[in-house]
């Protein structure tokens, strides 16, 4: 009927510190990604497919973190961290749904960079507005199909043993994403050194996000299958830390986004004065 979550620590003093820390992280995640969404929506400059996909990635980051972060934060304030069976299955479904959708969007963004770098003359024809919308819808559908399969397989398992959970995690294959960047790097061999620098600069932010998101996954699944106390912290890293870093990575390395944020702020101040 219910599960007992062991949490990150049993130390009450650390729990109070973690409560404040993770609450701050979650607020930054929501506000940072909302800033990206609003900036792209109201900017006249950020209208390319890449920013279209980035706005949806920011929205998925908010949803993905909201599935786990509020529960994690609330558990720091209670002694017995119980979770109902239905709530656990709902969290599992939503975690797979938003997590898989995010991976599909990262793959789509890699494909978008591949077209922009390797086939620049065909870019506007291939990545037209209606096509971008269909790709985003396909990402959501793909995430849903993956999640519904996972949950249907899970609920038919017998749950009659120990009900204490010391860890949570979901994974999905990212071969397509890696293949996209392999194609980009191979194609760069035919470009000039200036073209190399421009292409790598274009992909730098996205590659950074991909490494930060998938690095912990690779660490967890390539090591021997034994209990490892650091697993929980690794899972928290890409569940909470990565969505918090994404807005910073995409803004600090992108002059267009920074200028758009400044213009949006100036416009709001002007309207406030009037």
From TrEMBL:
PROSITE patterns found in the cross-reference section: G_PROTEIN_RECEP_F1_2 (PS50262)
TM segment ranges: 17-38, 50-69, 89-111, 165-188, 200-222, 234-252
GO function terms (MF aspect): G protein-coupled receptor activity
Highest taxon listed in the record's lineage: Eukaryota
Topology class, membrane: Multi-pass membrane protein
Main location: membrane
G-protein coupled receptors family 1 profile domain: residues covered: 32-250
Entry GO CC: membrane
Pfam families: 7tm_1
Name of the protein this chain belongs to: G-protein coupled receptors family 1 profile domain-containing protein
Claim: Transport is one of the keywords in the record: no
Alphabetized UniProt keyword annotations: G-protein coupled receptor, Membrane, Olfaction, Receptor, Sensory transduction, Transducer, Transmembrane, Transmembrane helix
GO BP: sensory perception of smell
Location of this chain's protein in the cell: Membrane
């Amino acid at each position: 009927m219910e599960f007992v979550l062991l949490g990150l620590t049993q130390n009450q003093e650390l729990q109070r510190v973690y409560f404040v820390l993770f609450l701050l992280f979650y607020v930054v995640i929501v506000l940072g990604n909302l800033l990206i969404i609003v900036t792209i929506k109201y900017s006249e400059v950020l209208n390319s497919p890449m920013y279209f996909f980035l706005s949806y990635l920011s929205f998925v980051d908010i949803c993905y973190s909201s599935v786990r972060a509020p529960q994690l934060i609330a558990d720091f304030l209670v002694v017995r961290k119980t979770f109902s069976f239905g709530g656990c299955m709902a969290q599992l479904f939503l975690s797979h749904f938003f997590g898989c959708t995010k991976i599909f969007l990262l793959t789509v963004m890699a494909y978008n960079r591949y077209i922009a770098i390797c086939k620049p003359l065909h870019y506007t024809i291939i990545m037209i507005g209606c096509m971008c919308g269909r790709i985003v819808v396909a990402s959501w559908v793909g995430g849903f199909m993956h999640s519904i399969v996972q949950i249907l397989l899970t609920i038919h398992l017998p749950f009659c043993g120990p009900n204490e959970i010391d860890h949570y995690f979901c994974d999905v294959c990212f071969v397509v994403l890696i293949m996209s960047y392999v194609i980009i790097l191979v194609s760069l061999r035919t470009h000039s050194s200036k073209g190399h620098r421009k292409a790598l600069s274009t992909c730098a932010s996205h590659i950074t996000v991909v490494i930060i998101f998938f690095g912990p996954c690779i660490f967890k699944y390539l090591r021997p299958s034994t209990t490892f106390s650091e697993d929980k912290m690794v899972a928290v890293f890409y569940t909470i830390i990565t969505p918090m870093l994404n807005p910073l990575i995409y803004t600090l390395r992108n002059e267009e986004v920074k200028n758009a944020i400044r213009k949006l702020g100036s416009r709001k101040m002007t309207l406030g004065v009037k």
